[in-house]
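Reopening this ticket.

The earlier resolution said the output was attached, but the attachment link was broken on my side. Pasting everything inline this time so it's all in one place.
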Amino acid sequence: MLFPKSEEYESRCVQRKVLLEALADELPQGTIRFSSKVVHIELSGHYKMVHLSDGTILKTKVLVGCDGVKSVVGKWLGFKNPAKTSRLAIRGLTHFPQGHGFGKKFFQFYGNGVRSGFIPCDHNTVYWFLTHTCTELDKETNPENLKEFVLDKLKDLPENIKSVVERTDLDSMVMSRLKYRPPWELLWANIAKDNVCVAGDALHPMTPDIGQGGCSAMEDGVILARCLGEAMKGKGETEDDEYKRIEQGLKKYAGERKWRSIDLITTAYTVGFIQQSTGKWMNLLRDKFLSSFLSRLLLKKSHFDCGSLV
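Inline output:
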């Protein structure tokens, strides 16, 4: 399946490292504290005391947990650990010094329980992935065996497609078990409580089948910044008044993100299930009737206006 350029929708691939560096460069030096894992959260009046693994204690007026699928902040709010799927994902980046020649197209292939694809990040770099229900691999599998496994699953594809994986450096490959937040958990979960909330994978971990994990985290950031900005506008009020406004701002953020998160998690899981199915009738339905619908659905889910910062 090929996703061509569209006037209505678009698909772009941005390397995580590049995105994080761009965001970090906008902050004052010293704002980010690296290698500082949250281990405990303590109440102190209207503040939350965040205990870090290095012994540091941070006094926070607002605590936003963006600490991933194993979020300590999420557990404090009452979230359970994300559910594991039976699927594994192998991902890699391939560099082409002279250019890859694939243009700005997103390629995807599926069948026999395998879903794979690749998309250019720029003129020289291509991101690729393969998901599979496999019992042969585990986290101890070395990169050489991972590469051999991927190439074996892609053996029937054209040589120029297989070359993307063949040219990948071993240290540019990773494998992980796919996880997701059961959408019904968000129906009654505390996305925000007091002056604490979660965002990103701490809120809505999802399978990567519609490419909206990082995008939805960016949406969280815009909406959260707007809600908090409105809450922090008041001046000359008591600490209690400020606390109540922050609490209301976070509740507003939670209300805006709940149904969007449920929609994305559910869609991603369903699309992955259909695309990676090995059942005879499901394959017939998918290949003959659903392929164009699924491709458009993937792009359509990114077409979301989260509003402006102000």
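Reporter confirms the inline version is readable. Residues 109 and 151 are 13 Å apart (CA to CA). Residues 239-275 form the longest helix (37 residues).
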